[in-house]
Design a protein that fits this description.
CATH class of the largest domain: Alpha Beta
Helix content: 25-40%
Number of domains: 4
Number of strands: 23
Number of helices: 24
CATH architecture of the largest domain: Alpha-Beta Complex
Largest sheet: 5 strands, parallel
């Protein structure tokens, strides 16, 4: 294994540390991971939901909100249609619950049994027969142009809330809310489906306020040499839509000769410290000009006491948003940031209800392998914090059933114990059980449903074990055909519900992208793809798109279906594509990126606090990998239940002796190293919870004996 530790200049570490108030070790890890710009650093160093993006940055959000509120006003029947995986299940739960709370006549549906992915004609017809007039698709819909056209023929409008890559042929929906749309307007494209749904929910709640769609104008006048600068910004739904700045020399120009009159006419004008603002404007234009302004400073100071008595000049320098913006901001920008914060707080934008919802957003984001960068970090971190403080109904019962009650839940716990259980309901054809678990009223039905979800997961594990016995030899045998760069397994004996799990396991085992295909009784073939070593699956999917009935997914996890008679043609194309040197080579030596090399005095339990700061871990944000030199092995034990394959070492690091787990490497004891040897090691740090006690430990990635 090759260890890579990127060399850094002291200047960049010092600048990050001093400018953003973090310690040098944190700054060096951020720099080594390429996180050096203010807007990126923000999401690693801050937790406040105020830093999340405004949902109305989606250009289509108002259309989606208005259509749903019209349905409420007219008493229409609304269907929330989701998907069978964790992201789809959490998306369905979130929107159904929110619409019900808003008073809509709403029902929900997810694909069951062998239903295909996405909205179906059958689902549309069933809703039409029940006199339904609106469908909102969640975590699906972007590739359902035909089904949405059929809905229109039955008098049903469709709002698409999705995050999958849009196809060339877009559906003719009332609104499409999808951050991957080229013209979405949204600044972050990697939201999970459940996070896009939560943005819609947030927008719906904002739309219930008096300020919805109402233009608000913030104005600030300030002296500048012998002139006065009058600046104004216009907001709609707290999104900046227009801005103006005029420099006026007293006595040289009338206000009617500026752009201010048409900009300000008919607007609600808010200022900071009206007395001062009126004086500045009188000096600029004379006392005959009147501005109808409202002094918002008192209102803001009531909710944000730190702002009381302060000038905009001082307040702008205290703005965290400005600190991460990377460039100085003016007084008007400081005013704008403060006003948005005030209005969100005043209206209780983030309370206990949102804390419950963010738990599902965190769960779906992690399960769908969304990159843990940008605002995903804040959404997941806040969801995890809420989960650890008070798990929401349904999730609490599932955590308890999986032995996680009272334990500090991490992203790893969710990924290993909760996500597979929820996913199992969809893989076994009954995703409705998971939705019912999250929506059930009362602990008794929730406990029953949690037990059923866990039972289904047990069935899925057995199905996976049986399928692996089929898939593994097929995948291994396929490697020569696909130039050792792609593994493919297909057959009727592979259950459709575990193709994704099998593809992930194949990719992990052979270190190359994997394709696992189930041959269905109806003459179709359904496949799953999983990436390896950062390879983007679009490079495999798009050249074969004409063969598929449908396909979609993400850069690292995707799926498709096709008619079985076209399978040979698909395999031939994949064979040619696999010969392309851009695919990762499964025989290449594995490389390990080292985030920091730690001296022994840093190897105390306090290092766990640093590891916590970089949570959430997952796609695009691997666990911190440390290296340390010359640690002495003072004890060693071989572990394992069925097979004793694992190794537990105790490493002497000076002040502290660390328990260290080395998975699947028991054979190396007394061959590559032994008790009494000094070793260099690459590792993660973690907590081992046992009998209510948390013990710090290392999870070893590689160990090298120090010679001499």
């Amino acid at each position: 294994m090759i260890w890579n530790k990127k060399e850094l200049g002291r200047e960049i570490v010092r600048e990050i540390s001093q400018r953003y108030g973090c310690d040098a070790l944190t700054a060096s890890i951020l720099a080594r991971r390429g996180v050096v710009e203010g807007p990126d650093l923000l999401f690693y160093l801050e937790d406040d939901l105020r830093f999340a993006h405004n949902p109305f940055l989606f250009r289509s959000m108002e259309d989606a909100v208005d259509r749903i509120l019209d349905a409420k006003e007219e008493g229409e029947k609304v269907l929330v249609f989701g998907d069978r995986d964790v992201d789809g299940i959490t998306s369905t739960t979130l929107l159904y619950q929110a619409l019900k709370d808003l008073g809509l006549d709403v029902s929900w549906r997810v694909p069951t049994g062998d239903d295909p992915y996405g909205l179906t004609v059958e689902a549309v017809d069933a809703h039409a027969d029940a006199y339904g007039t609106l469908i909102v698709t969640v975590d699906c819909g972007i590739s359902c142009a035909d089904e949405i056209a059929h809905a229109a023929s039955r008098g049903i409008d469709v709002v698409v809330v999705d995050h999958h890559n849009p196809p060339e042929n877009l559906p003719d929906a009332v609104a499409i809310v999808n951050p991957k749309m080229p013209d979405s307007g949204y600044p972050f494209r990697d939201l999970a489906g459940c996070a896009v749904v939560w943005k819609l929910i947030s927008a719906l709640r904002f739309a219930c306020l008096d300020v919805y769609k109402q233009p608000i104008c913030l104005l600030n006048a300030r002296p500048s040499n012998e002139a006065y600068v009058i600046e104004a910004v216009k907001l709609v739904n707290l999104v900046e839509v227009e801005r103006i700045s005029e420099t006026v020399v007293p006595g040289m120009v009338k206000i009617s000769q500026t752009r201010l009159v048409p900009f300000l006419q008919g607007q609600q004008i808010l200022v900071w410290d009206a007395a001062t603002q009126v004086r500045q404007l009188e000096k600029a234009f004379g006392k005959g000009v009147e501005f109808n302004c409202y002094d918002i400073a008192t209102d803001i100071a009531r909710d944000i006491p730190a702002a009381r008595g302060a000038s905009l000049l001082k307040l702008k320098d205290q703005s965290k948003i400005a600190r991460y913006n990377g460039k100085p901001i003016g007084e008007l920008d400081g005013f704008l940031n403060l006003f948005v914060t005030f209005l969100l707080r005043k209206n209780g934008t983030w309370g206990p209800r949102e804390a419950e919802e963010l738990q599902l957003v965190a769960l779906g984001t992690l399960a769908d392998l969304m990159p843990l960068r940008g605002e995903n970090r804040i959404l997941v971190r806040r969801g995890l914090a809420a989960m650890n403080e008070r798990p929401r109904p349904g999730l609490a019962e599932l955590l308890s059933r999986q032995g996680l009650a009272g334990k500090r839940v991490t992203t790893g716990d969710l990924s290993w114990q909760i996500t597979p259980a929820i996913n199992a309901t969809g893989r076994m054809g009954t995703p409705e059980r998971a939705v019912e678990l999250f929506l059930a009223d009362g602990p008794v039905p929730r406990q029953r449903l949690a037990e059923e979800v866990v039972r289904l997961n047990g069935d899925r594990k057995q199905l996976g074990a049986d399928s692996w016995a089929i898939v593994e030899p097929l995948a291994r045998a396929s490697l020569p055909r696909f130039s050792e760069r792609l593994a493919v397994a297909y057959g009727a004996g592979i259950h459709r519900g575990v193709t994704g799990i099998m593809a992930n396991r194949v990719a992990s085992a052979f270190k190359v992208p994997a394709v696992v295909i189930c041959l269905m009784e109806d003459g179709t073939a359904v496949g799953s793809l999983r990436s390896a070593r950062g390879f983007h699956l679009d490079a495999l999917l798009e050249p074969c798109a004409d063969l598929f009935i449908d396909h979609g997914g993400h850069a690292f996890a995707a799926g498709f279906s096709l008619h079985a008679e076209r399978l040979d043609e698909l395999l031939a194309r994949l064979e040619r594509l696999a010969a392309d040197a851009r695919l990762p080579d499964g025989d290449a030596e594995e490389e390990l990126e080292i985030d920091a090399e730690l001296p022994h005095e840093y190897l105390t339990p306090a290092i766990l606090d640093l590891a916590d700061r970089f949570e959430p871990y997952g796609e695009g944000n691997d666990q911190l990998t440390f290296a340390a030199r010359g640690m002495k092995i003072v004890a060693a034990d071989i572990m394992g239940k069925a097979e004793r394959n694992h190794l537990k070492l105790t490493l002497d690091c000076g002040k502290y002796k660390w328990p260290a787990i080395f998975w699947q490497e028991a054979a190396r004891l007394n061959r590559d190293f032994a008790v009494g040897d000094r070793v260099d090691a690459a590792f993660h740090v973690a907590r081992n919870a046992f009998n209510g006690t948390e013990i710090p430990q290392m999870i070893l990635e590689d160990v090298r004996k120090v010679e001499g």
